[in-house]
Protein 1
Amino acid sequence: MDPDFLVIGAGVAGLRAAIELAEAGTVLVVAKDSLRESSSEYAQGGIAVALSDDDEVSLHEQDTLLAGDGLCDRAAVRTLVEEGPSAIQELIDWGAEFDREGSRLAFTREAAHSRNRILHAHGDSTGREIARTLYHKAASLPNVTFRSFAAITDLLLHDGVVCGATFGGEAINARAVLLATGGLGCVFLNSTNPEVATGDGVAMAYRAGAEISDIEFVQFHPTALAVEGAPRFLLSEALRGEGALLKNAQSERFTDELAPRDVVARAIVNEMKRTASPNVFLDLTHRGDAFIRDRFPRIYETCLRYGVNLGVQPAPVAPAAHYAMGGVRTDLEGRTSLPGLYAAGEVACTGVHGANRLASNSLLEGVVFGKRAGVCSAGTPARRAGTNAGAMLPGSPPARVSAPQLMWDKCGIIRTGEALQQACEALDKAGATVELLIARCALARRESRGAHYRLDYPDKSAGFEKHSVIQKDAGVTFR
């Protein structure tokens, strides 16, 4: 069970990395609970790429930079958009079936995009189709094996180098470890993420001493299904791209539906407060039942299961935690600040998303940077004899305490210094690692930018046009 390469996470980024690593040695891909349960499986809207006739890579780059609100790393963005088209072609060559109009790929538009550049599969199951394609490709390679664990505990270190990880008490050694553990949305009370998205990768890396960056930037998706007893099922932004309107209980529109997600989410929160309502409504009935059923089959059937027929009635919606722009700090090749440790996908922070992710860039990031991290980590030198002798945990972590209501109330869509300070004190006592990182960095960023909104600092500040960085036993710095 000691492979050359250990990939933790079986979503799009982890699978793409594993495919690359298989050329350099044996690869073990491990996942928490289930190999097929990841945020990738739930990604509905699509994957953004400049491939249509009226689009250009430079326009995709420009839209991403604008959405990132001054904090995108330009080199990371350029890498994403320039390598995107070939990454999509590779997926098609491996069997990915994107929706088409005749023989041509079908593109749609989502918020803050200046062109129709969103590819989708089976209407609204794009992430599932890409994950399926990559899983079958990885599973066909003789060097790749898969395993699931109930708990992923910690990284193994030897002389400051990451050399494996422990899984429920079982140690697995490797010459390189690649984190692709996904997001952290479930630390909040309301989230569109699967239950496994609890920020484990960020916590593991932080406890081992890795740098964590921009963790205060959490994107809250404006439109999650808000039906009592139902999960906060994501109602894709693509619905608004196809004309869905946001209305209050009096059927009045109150915002620009295609504004950036942070703007729309705050508009919904303010409207809910103004009208003392637990939700607003997303209305696509004017497009007709047949269109909705054909274009969004998964969303249509899921809503119907919870008593909402999108063809004849608006869906009650409210914002929910959706995506983490920050994470384990990496360079463009997936290297973290710890030798032997790499990261890709939502767990990583390359700077590509800045303060606010552009819709449908996440799947593209997983594919592009998953490949790059795989290429780079494949070059990690082979272990010398005895390297893993005496490998030890970086310290026993405190019991993880979930505080979703506290995070929702104190560190949610609209924040204040007082609430964040209260959260820091409570989370520190509780030993809630990821939650405390979010609260500490949000408290330190005394401005509003992108998905981070401070009521007491409502404007952007030139002094904070930098990335937050936090490390074990150190305070928050801005670089």
Protein 2
Amino acid sequence: MAKGKTNVLGMIGFWAFILGLVIAVVVGIMAALGMAGAGLMSAVIIILIILGLIIGFLNITAKEILLFLVATIALIVVGGVFAPLKTLSIGAMLDNILALIATLMAPAAIVAAIKTLWTVGKPD
């Protein structure tokens, strides 16, 4: 693939990541404040999954896979840790944001894991 085309695809993956983070933060706050209904949450989850797939296919290189997978596992593991923080719904906001970021990163992690398995399993 030409270097220019690779750079464009990398930028698309980067902007998918930024857009996913912004959506996760905004909708996470809205959900904690009761301003996001079930229909909006369903649509947001589908959008985050699609963005996550784009990130996984376009943004994660072979040298980044291990660090990326460890970071994704950490995001998933800490889910719900802020729930006891009840002041001003901050705990609910942080939990919602982390859950939505995990929703964004899980499809990318699956793609990265499959890429890794493919690399390890293919004959030389």
